[in-house]
Amino acid sequence: MRRKTFFFIIILLPVFIFAAFAKPTDLLDIPTADVLKNGELTGSLFFSAASNFTDDRVPFDYNFAVSYGLMDMVDITLNMFTYLDYTLAVQYNFLKPTSTLPSLSVGLRNITYRKYIDAGGGGDSITSGFTDNSYTNRAEDWFSLYVVATKDFNKFGKYTLGIGRGEFVGYGRGRYLSTASFISDSALAGATNYMFGLFGGAEIPIIKNLNFIGEVTGRNVNMGLEYYIAGFNVSAGLTHAELFTAGDPALRPRIDLGVNYSYSFGGEIKKNENGTLIVNIVDNSNNKLLPATITFEETTIKPIQVSNGYVKLQIKPGKYKIKIESNNYKWQKREFTVASSATSEINVKLNKKDDTEAVNQAKAVNLAKEAKDKLNKGDIAGALLKLDEAQKLSPDDPTVLAYLQEANTKKAQMIKTYKENALMYEQKGWAKSAISEWNALLLLDKNNAEAKDHIKNLEKDANKTETKKEEVKTETKKIDPEKVYEEGYMAYLSGDYKTAIKKFEEVLKADPNHEKAQKYLDKAKKRL
After folding, report:
1. For 148, which of 76, 241, 344, 440 is 20 to 30 Å away at the CA?
2. Is 426 found in the same domain as 309?
3. Count of CB atoms within 10 A of residue 182's CB?
4. What is the pLDDT of residues 292-304, one digit of tens each?
5. CA of residue 62 relative to chain centroid, distance
6. Residue 426 and residue 520: Cα distance in Å, rounded?
């Protein structure tokens, strides 16, 4: 009898084709991370029968489901099990698949008024539904939360792996797929509803539109075939296949048959998909492919090293500017637009640099290094003069540009310092010291109108003020060492080492034991 039943199942299985659950994105009994498209409506009729029809508590079941997709991210399903019990399911796809990452979704099944429910029916007792689900420690099926990942490998199949509670947790041999395997039976009695179980499945293509499906949960092992044609999915499956080896003649697998039809209301969300960029880089004289560096300007895209003169990449739609550089070749810049789901190809022919350009570039690099030494010594104006000369020789040399950026940063900092010092001296009535600071600022920014205005105003009374102070100093033969030291220190910071040396010597003449004046006098003489 067993052989006849098994032979009948094997013959019947290929006759019907597809997975017999609520929506076409599901496998036989488990969800995948895929969701229905926006505006897609599906209706499903599915039926299962026990292979030992007369002995099973649920000899057959017949069910109906309706699903609807929203925003390409959410779908909602209403299930009617044997037209007596109703459940709702919601799934949210929070990560779309990429070339390397799977699709990820979170969902909630069996939103219902029945604690225990499956396709065989529902109720408030663990004996509700299919016989083989009546575990002593059966978890409540309602509000079965899950997280699931799905990755499509095209001709090699689509694979799903997830974890969930409720209907995804089984016992007996299935407990090893759940957290229940780590808990003793005595401790498990009050904790069944807090257990989580693994589930997984695969959808493998056989021929066009025909796929094999296999899946495993903590409760069941299922397998079947699916077939797609003109909006219809027709299905046949052998579920609860693990019962072949259950050792109980009353427990046998079930045969699932179903049909699903999908209709779209035309509400598909338009997506701004990436475009494809192809860049070919060759020697203009012989069309030989060249290694090069592609730099995207005014974007956060990192430079791309092209080893063989050809690159193909996916890129967001938009307008781009790129710079193509290769050793001993003149660089080129290109502007182009990439459209969504379109391919843009750029052919770049580089010309070799002549001897003059190579010599000028070498000179520019040497000048840039000299400028760097001056920067380190605090001579910003001298560094800028060197870098200006270097840039005339090789405007786009990266070394020159890097040092120029550093010099301009320090220039801005020193202009700020000179201005602050000058204003401070003006408040103290030290006109000549203020003029010295403004002049130092003009060495870095010769067109600074503010500095020129202050110098013009200060020069009107500078001579009278300074003359009066000199007369007082001559009469008393005394100076204020700390004030003169501060003037010398400010001159030192601004790079005016001659003035600094003069001030420090005046301090030491008045106070030979002034340690700071002696220290910076020595430093100023070394830098001069």
Report:
1. 241
2. no
3. 10
4. 999 999 888 999 9
5. 46
6. 24
